[in-house]
Amino acid sequence: MKYLFKNALVVTMNQNMEVIRSCDVFVENGIISAVGMSGAKERCDAAVIDASGKLLMPGLINGHCHVPMTLMRNYADDMDLQTWLFDYIFPVEEKMSGEDIYWGSLLGIMEMIATGTTCFIDMYDHMNCIVKAVEESGIRAHLSRGVTNFEEGTDFSRHKGLNEAIDFYRRWNGAANGRITGAFAPHAIYTCTTEFIRAIIETAKRFNAPIHVHLDETRVEHEDCLKKYGKTPTRYLYDLGLFDQRTVAAHCVWITDEDIDLLAEKNVTIAHNPTSNLKLASGVAPVPRALNKGVNVILGTDGASSNNNLNMFEEIHLASLIQKGVNNDPLLIKAKTVMRMATTNGAAALGAKDLGIIEAGAKADLILVDLDKPHLMPLHNALSALVYSAQGSDVYMTMVDGRILYENGEFKTIDKEKVRYNIKKCCDRLFG
Amino acid sequence: MKYLFKNALVVTMNQNMEVIRSCDVFVENGIISAVGMSGAKERCDAAVIDASGKLLMPGLINGHCHVPMTLMRNYADDMDLQTWLFDYIFPVEEKMSGEDIYWGSLLGIMEMIATGTTCFIDMYDHMNCIVKAVEESGIRAHLSRGVTNFEEGTDFSRHKGLNEAIDFYRRWNGAANGRITGAFAPHAIYTCTTEFIRAIIETAKRFNAPIHVHLDETRVEHEDCLKKYGKTPTRYLYDLGLFDQRTVAAHCVWITDEDIDLLAEKNVTIAHNPTSNLKLASGVAPVPRALNKGVNVILGTDGASSNNNLNMFEEIHLASLIQKGVNNDPLLIKAKTVMRMATTNGAAALGAKDLGIIEAGAKADLILVDLDKPHLMPLHNALSALVYSAQGSDVYMTMVDGRILYENGEFKTIDKEKVRYNIKKCCDRLFG
User: Fold this and answer.
1) CATH topology of domain B60-349
2) Sign for the pseudo-dihedral over CA of B29, B35, B39, B44
3) Rounded to whole angstroms, how far apart are CA atoms B346 and B358?
4) What ipTM did this prediction achieve?
5) B242-271 per-position pLDDT tens digit
6) Domain B2-59+354-411: assigned CATH number
7) Which A residues in the span 12-71 are in contact with B, Cβ-Cβ below 8 Å?
8) Which regions of chain B carry the CATH code 2.30.40.10?
9) Is A220 touching B (CB cutoff 8 A)?
10) Residue B307 and residue A114: Cβ atoms within 8 Å?
11) Does the distance separating the beta carbons of B330 and A380 come in below 8 Å?
């Protein structure tokens, strides 16, 4: 399928952050093949999309999520982390079947594509069911089977989670025309023994695979690690060699300046989740300091049970505001910086130079933002408008790999009624 | 006109925070005349609105705004307050004509009614033009002519701003079926001499009128006041007797515990503007402490040039998140607390017991929220959904004084095309 976007206001996110008015963008076989002011005539075999009055930009990359947790959205709020996790979340998760995971994932994917996310980085369980939802919906995803181990020991050859993680990686990494990529995911330092983390690192090395991990999310995690190992969580994983693999480390709220140096040295990506960190009262991650030292920082929503939505426009907005306010500096995390975090930095985290950008040769993961909204008038500055004024609901169209998944309120690959019906069924069983 | 809302999920915001399923609400002559499970048959002369799958709640009250500043939306971002104000905002404001004010106000009102705001508290200039926009659009507004005076002296009988403020109050307080109410507004302690503030207080007393003022927004304001007057801004205004009038004090970011006691003693309302305070790096107001001491706290957007939108759902969301995260306490500013701030507390600030609530006898300022959105599924808890998941764009219908102003994307009282055309014209002249 070929598409020609006509007369868009194009936010390229290229090196010079070019914003081009009345620009045409041509998409061929899932790839952006031309960006410019002409090209319409010789490509009359393409479906033409009138993008006047709309802004075309790279799709957003959600850097940290647990997509099936949509089922627990607004189920447990305004409580402390321990109560939330042990009295509410874990008991429900124990009851969740593959069926629940599948429908919960589809619901989360609906929300993401309706608000401009074209790729998400996820860690959860029942991977085959999440894969099914990703495959069918057409979204792009970097997935990992999150694993935990609380018992001492060194032989993990029969560890259920790790074996499932290996099976998942073997079977699905690179699947669906490369839309699905895999990683290994030790859940966190407080849910995995040292030997288990070693085993996962070895496994990841064997497959030359990346790693996704929760890191230094709470003060408790930080202080417990200092007590137990005499070092920070970052130093602990650094010393284990975990960061020798390409790593996305979610949260990093409590990292020290020395930790930042270690993360920079190893090219570790920080997935910053401002809403979740505020809502669970974890704190505010030192993002400006990390960026200053050259660390790649991306943005994530975390799961819907600690957010409570999967709307990347909210994270963009909040990531910029919170640092200015808390650090007493209005110049921090400018519009262009936070837009990088949501697009090209996400691509860098995945080792993908052809994502998060509009230029010839890049993958056609694109969104159209409808500018005909009161809150987007006047349009003095497109980047500021995207960061400070825009809403997820301003997304008019979402395309992944050159395929339109969502347009004008309509889901092209997902049966909304069926999802609504089945979510109700799942919830009746889980919570009824 | 009579309306019957059928089968709504009603968030009443009444004393017991009742949330009623499958509820009918009857509206007659601008007043809610019945709330309950029946009543459909005997009221067949009413226009029936099928509200199944929708949530009916009181309209939101925007506690602090400068509505015409929409014209400067996304015009000056990521800069310090001094540069922003003196190099960008003031020079444009000097050029603004009544025409600009009128169209900018209409644009802001469009945005507010499309995102569920039914009443706003505003302070600006060219009041007749703002009044015109309020009258025509049908929204409710508490307006004041903001005044400043930098020159020493005690005779203000010829002060242009003060005379305009008096004329405005005389002419418009209580106008448009009571939709428009007035106040006097000394802009701030750093833009008014002591004698001028005294004169405004005297004037407000003469008219038995309320006051709207900026208070303790920045550290600079706080410290300069300590230096100049030997007391905090709150104590300074308290000693002048300003708080003897019903007062809305915007921001209060730097207030001390003793200040909070003074505000509580005088029943002063704090208008909290979380987005603006973060974006301009003013800081985070001590809202939990103020609430604990019984101060009435409401929510505001501030102007669109420091936000950059007028979407109260964002302020609701942020007001809850920011306090949890910054104070390291996930139990702070729970969903029900912040919903009170956006509704009934706003009504209390206006001395209006018949606003911000769904009960028989209250004014029919109502909004319908469409629940058929992926991010509002499942619906475990309506209040949590409104605070943590909902978007301004979920608002399906907005009614003020029993009149529908907005429904299903359509503005009933405002010509959107005309506003777009004229906003462009104004901006071409102001910024061209």
Assistant:
1) TIM Barrel (3.20.20)
2) positive
3) 14
4) 0.97
5) 999 999 999 999 999 999 999 999 999 999
6) 2.30.40.10
7) 70-71
8) 2-59+354-411
9) no
10) no
11) no
